[in-house]
């Protein structure tokens, strides 16, 4: 048998310890002397085992991993070199022997070292060792680099021998993609509501003070009028309003798309306006005949009331948030 080896000499240079009273046998046949009290205080599993045994056999890992494991039990330290060489073995040992501090160290260390080449192995070990944070990190890396990972031997092994894990990973990727699409859709909707809120503010501005080309009849609009701070939106609205005022097809249902959009904008403002009696926007540019057509269109659109009410609610909310967050318009 090979002579005994001890990983604790360098970690206990200034400590006076009694003679070792038990040995750990490695898979390679080496014996590592140790102290029962220290091992028992670090691991409840070892504490239960060494009460009736003076020899502890550790299987399934390299001798160096056993030495690093015992050294950690004495010093609570693990070097980067040891983590590079034995990180996965140490995670397995820390899980089996319930050494929580070493397990946390291994989860952090392996998380920093996981790559497309070893992600499948680390993922499988994380699942076996009840390390959900490390497992999730591996699944995310796998999902982000699936094209590269599926060419590795680890993934091919899963395909051939662990269809349940393969299904779990593919299901995670599918649900993750669905969440991404849902998040993108929500952001797009929020952007639309914000744009409509700005359009409502610009309508009020145009009908109250006037902008560069369109304004109320009692306000003079001249070449000296400078663009406002939201002129990009105001300019589009002014073009729509000027077109609406002269378009003959606005009286025919669905004949002019631009007129239809103008109707919808004025209707939206009418729905969210809190000062109906004094508002200068609501139907300010509409003739009596236009009002009659508007009433007819609203009657025909009753089947869309639920969607319209939701739109009104969202735009009103965006308008309220905008009024709190943004500075006043500058002319």
TrEMBL record:
The keyword Zinc-finger applies. Pathway: Protein modification; protein ubiquitination. The keyword Zinc-finger applies. Keywords: Metal-binding, Ubl conjugation pathway, Zinc, Zinc-finger. This is BTB/POZ and TAZ domain-containing protein 2. Residues 20-82 form the BTB domain. GO terms for biological process: regulation of DNA-templated transcription; response to hormone; response to hydrogen peroxide; response to salicylic acid. It is a peripheral membrane protein. InterPro entries: BT1/2/3/4/5, BTB/POZ_dom, SKP1/BTB/POZ_sf, TAZ_dom_sf, Znf_TAZ. Pfam families: BTB, zf-TAZ. GO terms for molecular function: calmodulin binding; zinc ion binding. It is found in: Endomembrane system. It comes from the Eukaryota. The lineage of its organism: Eukaryota, Viridiplantae, Streptophyta, Embryophyta, Tracheophyta. Its main location: membrane. GO terms for cellular component: endomembrane system; nucleus.
